[in-house]
Amino acid sequence: MNHQKIGAFLKELRREKGVTQEQLAETLSVSRRTVSRWETGSNMPDLDILVEIADYYEVDIRELFDGERRPEHMDKDMKETALKMADYSNEEKQAYMKRLHGFYIMALIAFAVYFISTFFEPAAPSALFDFMQGLMLGICLAMIIVGILMTGESGKRLRKAKARLLGKGELLT
Prior knowledge:
The protein contains eight helices and no strands. The chain is mainly alpha-helical. It folds into two domains: 3-66, lambda repressor-like DNA-binding domains (434 Repressor (Amino-terminal Domain)), CATH 1.10.260.40; 87-165. The longest helix is centred in the middle third of the chain and has 42 residues, at 76-117. It starts with a helix and ends in an 8-residue tail after the last helix.
């Protein structure tokens, strides 16, 4: 998939329709900067937004993927399939973000316990107290590292490897 070609096609369609990036952004409930990124090819719209764009410009979604016009148009069944795929993709993303959110909450709780414990240090040295402080700080740092890894490119590769190992193919992105 050639992102620059798709971006140029999106820009061409917008100009043919006679709308500005701001107007398109408002119609699709995204920012003007997002539209600009699509048109430069530095970022691509999610599948559900691609379906909206195809409807807005009255083009086939395959034309958007190819970055050029096609003579035939997408039939209703294909459009419904594309929307179902977009819904599935969004559900997967929401479930993933919910798990990631749980990690961040756990890190926040661990940090709060660590921070509060610094005010209540016992008068006599306590191995158990030191262990608990270290454990809380370790959990906090581990969750931050997990969050950084899972939201970056390495996380995407890890999720794909996990999907292959579990036999789910390319369902997780």
